[in-house]
Specification:
Radius of gyration: 26 Å
Number of helices: 13
CATH architecture of the domain at 103-348: 7 Propeller
Helix content: 10-25%
CATH class of the domain at 103-348: Mainly Beta
Shape: globular
Number of strands: 37
Largest sheet: 8 strands, mixed
């Protein structure tokens, strides 16, 4: 079949309106084909051809090249043309998923000072309403009519295609709120201060803020961070309320290492404001008194390669979690007057991965992981005794969450598993008791007895045992007659927890087993698990995913070709690598905002994240070995003339993390190179960024689109 080479807006319109559209995917019009334009570059004596380099707009971050825009519009139109005959099914999936979500859901109130704070959704709305009420004895009634609405995200989002509340901080005197909002997905946030009593914004401090601001103890100013033109968080400033923001004093600016980003925080006892600068493998932290943010910042420990540390404060001491002498981290204490002298309190251990410590008045809240499962402990300051918060399931996700006060009577815990809906507890240490405060409601109904979770250890090709969590119906056959969905990420030390998700059941109830591959590159099995999937060991992540898929096939979950796979961002890179390596295993793949043009991105140090990413992937600019390795696995560079599975690729025009041209170039090259007739779709959100569309229903509809794509390709679409 001859493919058109036109990529104009007229073609895009024709794709949507084409009368040739029938009810079958094979009746689609020809897909758009991007023009190939000669372009090459030479690095370390190796010349690389890149005929789709023109898809990176020369004026980025502004995208106004008509050829680029026309191609993206044509791909979007092709996606819409595919979706049109399946629209009723996708809509039914969306309504099914929506029916599992409580429309007027609200969070459990959190006590902070003299008030209880919570958020909720009104029926039919996309965004949250934020409330509070005074703490009045035993009064626990948190109905909206008894609370004060202090912020309405829906009102702020009116007239916008995109809205995100990225920061929300109430002042210590409880009279003001600092908010950061993003209206286009670029993650350049507008920082404003609002008076709670009147609901009026008092001032705008910056339009390029990022992160969570921190109030000074006197509620008369705040510390915040800004990004520069390259979207790098490079400095922390102090703003005194009422002053001209142009005169805000820079507390710290990172000038030594372009890879480092600056962030701010506060210790649990609210005594210190912390200023951190660092990247994925090393950092350094300074502190200033919360009641005197303009004091000279005190450096705790100078940055060192591959050494990280986090800091909290309680009882006149600094408490430091660090990997300076053990890969799984230790806890140390230090005198604020001598912050660089660290004395071990909890030694590092091979069998326990220490992830974090929050120091409250009566207990340290210790979080870690043992054998790949979350562990929560309360540690006593005087005796060193560690009390484990008890959980009974074999696989679950748990964390301390929502404990803003220094001396609470109990500690808030969040818990779920693949079969247990999200549950909020208060843990009462005096009698070792978990008090259930909320269990996630499933309005359309949910019977947990129909499902089971398998926890497997599958051997990778180098002998490593990779954990896998699988959700399935109890009547799911293990004779390869079923279908399998495998999700993975595998980067930055980010674990994918075996937690509850209502959306998954739209696949599981249609004959799929849903598997999470806890591959190397994440820290699921400890920090070394992360190290074993980065830099020179990066390909372990890809091999693990392929080997897990093969192991699940051998265990009877499905046969080759009846497997779907999904990943996003660095997990999208994973998807690109595995379809290059073992395309025959998969029948459908969804790659969201995929980081697939790895070599070009790591060679471009003007891009926002590139310098900070070299410690994860390697620096191909200065290191020939890193150049060779990245070139050997970069998904875009390794597309070959072979059959590929059906694929859905997504992206965002305003995405500062994975730029839009990565999925666009990859799609273009796949179309021109692959030897099959399997469906290849790309959807670029023209007014959103890395997280896709904003609003809870908009985001859910995009899940329905992805699952609809998978079900139409592998079967199970009730059309």
């Amino acid at each position: 079949m001859k493919r058109s080479t036109l990529t104009t807006a007229a073609m895009a319109a024709a794709l949507i309106a084409s009368p040739a559209l029938a009810q079958k995917d094979d009746m689609l019009p020809d897909p758009p084909v991007a023009e190939q334009r000669p372009h090459s570059f030479t690095t370390h004596g190796i010349t690389v051809e890149d005929p789709y380099a023109w898809l990176k707009d020369a004026s980025y971050p502004k995208v106004d090249d008509e050829d680029v825009l026309d191609y993206l519009k044509a791909e979007n139109a092709y996606f819409e043309a595919w979706k049109k005959p399946h629209e009723a099914f996708i809509e039914s999936l969306f309504e099914e998923m929506k029916a599992r979500i409580k429309e007027d859901d609200k969070t459990v109130p959190i006590k902070d000072g003299d008030y209880l704070y919570w958020s909720e959704f009104a029926p039919g709305t996309q965004y949250r309403l934020w409330y509070r009420k005074p703490v009045t004895g035993s009064d626990a009634d948190i109905k909206p009519e008894n609370g004060t609405l202090i912020y309405d995200e829906n009102k702020q989002a009116e007239g916008l295609d995109y809205f995100r509340l990225g920061g929300f901080a109430v002042s210590p005197d409880a009279t003001k709120i600092a908010t950061l909002t993003d209206s286009n997905g670029s993650e350049r946030f507008v920082l404003k201060v609002r008076d709670i009593a009147t609901g009026k914004d008092l001032e705008t401090i910056t339009e390029v803020g990022i992160g969570q601001p921190v109030w000074a103890a006197g509620s008369d100013g705040l510390v915040y961070t800004e990004v520069n033109d390259n979207w790098r968080s490079y400095r922390a400033l102090y703003h005194s309320l009422g002053a001209n923001p142009a005169d805000d004093k820079v507390i710290y600016e990172e000038t030594e290492n372009v890879a480092f980003s600056v962030g701010v925080g506060q210790t649990t006892d609210e005594k210190y404001i912390l200023i951190e600068t660092g990247e994925n493998s090393s950092n350094e932290v300074r502190f200033v008194p919360a009641d005197n943010p303009l004091a000279e910042p005190v450096l705790i420990m100078r940055r060192r390669p591959d050494i990280q540390y986090d800091v909290d404060s309680a009882h006149g001491k600094l408490w430091i979690v660090t990997n300076d002498n053990h890969v799984n981290f230790r806890l140390a204490e230090a005198d604020p007057a001598k912050p660089g002298v660290w004395n071990t309190i909890i030694a590092g251990a091979d069998d326990f991965y220490l992830q974090g410590v929050d120091t409250h008045r009566d207990h340290m809240l210790v979080e870690g992981r043992r054998d790949g499962l979350d562990q929560l402990y309360l540690r006593h300051y005087d005796t060193g005794e560690m009390e484990r918060v008890p959980f009974e399931e074999a696989a679950y996700s748990a964390s301390f969450a929502g404990n803003p006060e220094f001396a609470p009577a109990s500690y808030r815990v969040s818990y779920s598993s693949m079969v247990t809906p999200g549950t909020v507890y208060d843990y009462h240490p005096e009698d070792d008791r978990l008090e259930t405060l909320k269990v996630q409601e499933i309005p359309s109904g949910y019977d947990p007895t129909l499902y089971t979770v398998d926890r497997l250890m599958i051997e990778a090709r180098d002998g490593a045992k990779v954990p896998v969590s699988v959700l399935r119906r109890k009547d799911f056959p293990l004779d390869q007659s079923g279908k399998l969905f495998v999700y993975g990420y595998g980067a930055y030390g980010i674990a994918i927890p075996p937690s509850f998700s209502t959306s998954k059941f739209s696949l599981v109830d249609r004959g799929f087993a849903y598997a999470i591959a806890h591959i190397r590159g994440g820290d699921d099995m400890g920090y070394q698990w992360f190290l074993d999937g980065k830099l020179k060991k990066r390909t372990n992540s890809f091999n693990d995913f392929v080997d897990v898929t093969r192991g699940l096939i051998e265990a009877g979950y499905a046969k080759p070709g009846m497997v779907a796979a999904e990943g996003g961002s660095a997990g999208g890179e994973l998807m690109g690598a595995v379809v290059n390596q073992a395309p025959e295993l998969y029948g459908a793949v969804a790659a969201h905002v995929p980081f697939v043009d790895v070599l070009n991105t790591m060679l471009d140090d003007t891009l926002p994240l590139t310098p900070g990413e070299w410690n994860e992937w390697g620096n191909p600019i200065t290191d020939p070995d890193a150049f060779t390795l990245i070139r050997s696995y970069s998904p875009y560079d390794n597309v070959t003339a072979q059959d590929y599975p059906a694929m859905l690729i997504t992206g965002g025009l305003n995405d500062p993390r994975v730029t839009y041209w990565e999925p666009a170039k990859w799609t273009a090259k796949l179309r021109a190179t692959k030897t099959d007739d399997n469906l290849l779709l790309m959807k670029i959100n023209m007014g959103a960024g890395h997280g896709g569309k904003s609003g809870r229903w908009n985001r859910l509809y995009e899940v329905a689109e992805a699952y609809g794509f998978i079900l139409t390709q592998l079967g199970g679409a009730d059309e």
